[in-house]
Sequence to fold (176 residues):
Amino acid sequence: MNYYALQVKTRGEEKYTKLFKALYPDIQIPFYFPQRKIDIRRKGKFIQTQSAIFPGYIFIEISEEDTILKYQWFFRKTDGFIRFLRSNQNIMPLADRDLDVVLHFIKKAGPIAGKSKVYFNEDSRIVVVEGPLMGLEGKIIKVDKRKGRAKIKLDLYEDSFAIDLGFEIIRPSDRH
Fold:
């Protein structure tokens, strides 16, 4: 399978996929736009919010036999489309680290990344027991115990950005 990245209007990922499927019901291509749930405090109350991990990006899966060139105009003609990554002239499947990061959120974390279970060892280093942070420990750049969040640095097509993922602290004896 090859995975490609499309840039669409930010916060319009779900609208784009629904519109594409409505316009072209015969094209059966899986769409992915990984999301995360995180608690945000507003006016003293915690509100659970859901947002895209990669805002403005949708990932599609196309079999080895098919080619992106066969479908590119359907994607381009759908309202909300901005461009393919790397560029519209050089459409490349995700590879290496880019593919690993995207597959982590598509396959391992699930469509909506919830809270990870963590504990802190005797050196005050975070140890992830389960959840979407599992396997991303080396990408953690900041931990906020009070808010229950870990900021991780992600790279996609030579561009870096940071996102917050939630965690809940467990005692080391609660490990599975």
The mean pLDDT is 87. Residues 96-108 form the longest helix (13 residues). The CA atoms of residues 117 and 168 lie 5 Å apart.
